[in-house]
Amino acid sequence: MIEIVTIATPSLGDRSYLATDGQTALVVDPQRDIDRVLAVAAEREVTITHVFETHIHNDYLTGGLALARATGAAYHVNAADQVAFDRAGISDGDVVTAGAMRVQAIATPGHTFTHLAYALADGTGAVLAVFTGGSLLHGATGRTDLLGAEHAAALAAAQHASAHRLATLPGPAEVHPTHGFGSFCAPSAVTAAGADGSTIAAERRRNPALIQDVDSYVAGLLAGLDDYPAYYVRMGPANAAGPAPADLAPPAPVSAAELGQKIRAGEWVADLRQRRAFAAGHLPGSLSFEHGDSLLANLGWLLPPGTPLTLIGAPQQVASAQRDLARIGIDQIAAVAPGPAGPGLARYPVSDFAGLAAVRELVTVLDVRRRLEWAAGHIEGALHIPLHRLPGRLGDLPGGPVWVHCQAGYRASVAASLLHAAGHRVTAIDDEFGRAALAGLPVAPARPAQLAS
């Protein structure tokens, strides 16, 4: 019997997989922290003999090369990809045998030009599953603009054809994508549909790529593309070069005085505590990045490349954040420190949309959501600066008090900490945007001219 183990990375919205026949194992799209994969293999007492990449990833650093070297496994990367390391090149139609398992490569361009899917069959030849990477997702397909907006439409058309090719696999075959669980590699319209699993038959019934004609599908896919994290541009080249193993050694502790020196020197100090605790008292100049699944995309997106980073938080928070950051190439955290205490702490108020309604005419309302969120509805008269653009536009804000909001509170807390560190009088709105209209605030859809923010 073949077992497929899912190794989820919620902070990236991605999944890796280990498949085993009870003795031999293969791995698809492993993350950089390969200790998790090795632990799964050790628990089952199986030997990893093959590692497969569906594509050169743009959203994280792969652990495939490190895993293959650690286990002696063959490392399968598309033969057409230009890489700087030795690999077992694989191409459309190639079949690899791993114990009682057979894996066939299927060319599925769209998410990237050289994307591959892998159909997994047992010893009888029956296809049990397909690892689809960023191609056929659960109820959607991967985004097609990560290699440049000029390629997006052509790759979307290719994605449509690739989905139809995968749809010829047996209906009961399970669909195991790498992306689509919150990853920015999926269009913004992707929901949690299929989070507990899907099959080829299910995708034939619901996937837009399989129920729409190519023109309708391409138009819908392109319309759902919003901004993606800035660090993505560094992931593809780093993966083609071959990432080094992750270094998860604990960072050195520093004192409160040393933290202040780091901030004055232009280094970043990220506070991992709960966002309301940060607002109630924090080291002046530090920034709020509450520990959790939203941390990686936001901190990774905003942190200027090469900027030294110190983390404030409990030991388990720091260790988890360090692991997450290593997945996107932010290594060697400069230092760590516990939560600040004592006199001299900075603070700012936190409120909700009902509180904003009471002072609406007296303050500047700043909306830091992304473009498509704004387009779906926003508070009339609000200033729109997406969070990822805010550090470069702090000078665009008017004087006076600023109330900042996002969709659910996390990004508002990050923005509030940036604004407060820059000397603004700020209130963070820690509330769901859906409550804005209920609080009596005027919410209107965006006009086309407003979408360029």
Describe the overall structure.
The protein has helices spanning 35-44, 64-71, 152-166, 200-206, 208-211, 214-223, 232-241, 256-264, 275-280, 295-302, 315-326, 353-359, 371-375, 410-421; strands at residues 3-9, 14-20, 24-28, 47-52, 74-78, 88-90, 95-98, 101-107, 116-121, 127-133, 174-177, 268-271, 287-288, 309-312, 335-337, 350-351, 364-367, 378-379, 383-384, 402-405, 426-429, 443-444. The chain is an alpha/beta fold and 453 residues long. The protein starts with a strand and ends in a 9-residue tail after the last strand. α3 (152-166) crosses α6 (214-223).
Summarize the structure.
The protein contains 14 helices and 22 strands. With 453 residues, the protein is α/β, with parallel strands linked by helices.
Entry keywords:
453 residues; alpha/beta; Metallo-beta-lactamase, Chain A; Oxidized Rhodanese, domain 1; 3 domains; six-stranded mixed beta sheet; 27% helix; globular; disordered C terminus
Helix-strand layout with pairing:
Elements: E1 3-9, E2 14-20, E3 24-28, H1 35-44, E4 47-52, H2 64-71, E5 74-78, E6 88-90, E7 95-98, E8 101-107, E9 116-121, E10 127-133, H3 152-166, E11 174-177, H4 200-206, H5 208-211, H6 214-223, H7 232-241, H8 256-264, E12 268-271, H9 275-280, E13 287-288, H10 295-302, E14 309-312, H11 315-326, E15 335-337, E16 350-351, H12 353-359, E17 364-367, H13 371-375, E18 378-379, E19 383-384, E20 402-405, H14 410-421, E21 426-429, E22 443-444
Parallel strand pairs: 3-4, 4-5, 5-6, 10-11, 12-13, 12-14, 14-15, 16-21, 17-19, 17-20, 20-21
Antiparallel strand pairs: 1-2, 2-3, 7-8, 8-9, 9-10, 18-22
Helix pairs in contact: 3-6
